Amino acid sequence: MNKFFFSSTLSILLISMPCLYAQHKDCYTALEICDNASLHMIPSSGIGLTDLGVAITCVGQEYNSIWMKWTVMESGILSFVLYPDSAWQDLDFIVFQPGSDEDCVDKIPIRCMAAGANIAEPPQQWINCTGATGLATGNTDAEEPPGCPPGSNNFLAPIDALAGEQYILMINEFSDSGLGYTLSFTGTASLTCITGTAYPEEENTLASLDVYPTISTGTIFIRVDETGHSLNQLNIVNTAGQIVYSDKQLIETDLEIDLQHLPPGIYFAQLRSSHSTLTQKFLLAN
Fold this sequence. Notes:
Layout: H1 7-13, E1 19-22, E2 31-32, E3 39-43, H2 52-55, E4 65-74, E5 76-78, E6 80-84, E7 91-97, E8 108-115, E9 133-135, E10 143-147, E11 155-156, E12 159-161, E13 166-173, E14 181-185, E15 190-192, E16 208-212, E17 215-216, E18 219-225, E19 233-238, E20 243-247, E21 254-258, E22 265-272, E23 277-284
């Protein structure tokens, strides 16, 4: 994948997309991914507790890290692209499978990306190892080491994921740029939350989101269950990724929203809690 062709795609992804100012710096406090929606993240500096599971991989150490996790709801190809805000950022990542449910001690690294710039060498020798990175169809390698040795292209093989499998992802912003990046899932596997919560101070329940009618002439009704969660934002998003309605301070759990001013088409109600995102699709047919 050519690293300089990602900018137009990135500009579309970033239109009005909410940012996650990540505090999820350890496996045990990983951000729970509850669907396949794209996320833009701005990592805070530093790391959490030293993770021995990272130290034994090609990455070697955490650097401005973010952790996240999810369960595969429907089997398919698990692939994703990390689009940095700048083509010169150096992003590394590790994909783990837990040794047992939600286990961060016995997790097994199955993909490891550490490729990046060889500062002492001319840019033409390492430019292919900067910019966008991830898991992509057409690649067969499970690991790319630091630097940019021959054959490295900043992408690894996708994963043939089965329903019920759990995955943990650690991302490093190694370039320490202060900038963020967008995570976009590109495969056919359908993702949902890992049962339970990464926050022991919150109840061991999942937030819920109901939207009705699913085919509307302009008014929709939304019901959210905030039991045990710190809900902070409800967005209505169109298929271009633009937010057309937002309620950043949810007070009520039952909402009536007038969307008659919007053109007909498919929209998504997106509920963001303190550690997860839920999405429901509906159609405006006015």
